[in-house]
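[audit] Reproducing an earlier prediction to check determinism. Same input, same settings, fresh worker. If the tokens differ from the archived copy the diff job will pick it up downstream; this log only records the rerun itself.
[audit] input (169 residues):
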Amino acid sequence: LSNIEVNDRDDWRSVLYQAHLSEVFVPYMDPDEGWYWRTYMDSGEYGFGIFLSPLRPGVDCPAYAQYLPALVHQDDGSPLAIPGAICVFERNIGDPAWRHFEIFAQSETEIVPAEGRPATQLVVRTASEVGNYDYLVVTSFIGTGRIDVSGRLTRMAVGVGGRDQVDDR
């Protein structure tokens, strides 16, 4: 993320200059001779930009999301356009941002409902595929001013065999 600003009445105010995912560390920790040394730094060694994948409406993001392309560079420096690599959507998180029930406004004949607003988030999401892993990077802009960044991991299971499981006949 770069140059995030908020409209503060008539002025734009910077709230975040640069934010980056520093690394995703993948230690397999298998003591087998063929696997003990395998430890990957998926973001730094492989890069999430070059491995961005198009997002699927209704699976990766809600169908009502807006989808944006991404322009990344390939290993040789040439540009690569990835359609639908970023989705942006608002979601109601199911909690009130605020509410108030005015007890003294009530009468015997009329109940005045509580006032309130739902808590919402503006979500920006990407997905990168590195090997058998798919990483979702989710940035949520919350109405209170907080910015949450989370990484989510999904994978295709890969079977691992040790030397003792190989028949050399």
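[audit] rerun output stored. Observation attached for the diff report: The chain has a mean pLDDT of 84.
[audit] end
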